[in-house]
Amino acid sequence: MKVCRQIIETKGEIEIISTNKDWTGNKNSIFKTLGASNHTDKERENNDYYATDPIAIDVLINDGHAQIHKKVWECACGEGHLAKRLKEYGHEVICSDLIDRGYGQGGIDFLSCHKEWNGDILTNPPYKYAKDFVEHALSVIPDGYKVFMFLKIQFLEGKSRKELFAKYPPKTIYISSSRIMCAKNAEFETMKKGGGSAVAYAWYEWEKAYQGETVVKWIN
User: Fold this and answer.
1) pTM of the shown model
2) Domain boundaries, the chain
3) Residues 147, 134: contact at Cβ < 8 Å?
4) Which one, out of 38, 100, 152, 160, has a CA that is 20 to 30 A from the CA of 12?
5) 6: which residues sit within 8 A by CB, 6+ positions away?
6) What backbone torsions phi and psi does residue 188 show, to the nearest 5 degrees?
7) Residue 211 CB neighbour total at 10 angstroms
8) What kind of fold does domain 4-219 have according to CATH?
9) Alpha-carbon distance 144 to 33, whole Å?
10) Which residues, 6 or more positions from 210, have their beta carbon under 8 angstroms from its beta carbon?
């Protein structure tokens, strides 16, 4: 697998440039990198692929009135469910994922991308590595830019995440009052027939260098 090295802009378009360096881990290490999602361990899909209903973008923008930068990096894009909806709202979206699912640039390990990104970062990350994604995202954007992560409400729990919130207080947490689906293998209709989502989600918004109080909003 390729490891991301830099992000550039050419002719008004945003591109990821990756080197030819191969992933050196074995099969076991690849799955450890993928980690876990925002879901139970029951019948987990091999590469932990759970697509997010695009309504998550609608309620963030329309209900939450979130201010998202024109340029956005969706760094765990899957098949582009969130990215496509962001583009419909007029955003310039760069899309990458560790696994190539036919959308965006596959084979890109976000946690190995260290080039500064002059835009916001938005994704539903592998849940086991959500804290790493947050910290890394904040490390590659300039002050004033934002990180939006779609995560379980339970992400608020835990001693290590308490330390994260103390160091990097979220600017806003948008709690979804209605359940938003994250469907295994993007099989939303199958999930609907099974009763929908049993997991409560929220959008967590960080602004680089923000040190104020966290505002909680209810959306959807």
Assistant:
1) 0.79
2) 4-219
3) yes
4) 100
5) 16, 17, 115
6) -65, -40
7) 9
8) Rossmann fold (3.40.50)
9) 29
10) 169, 171
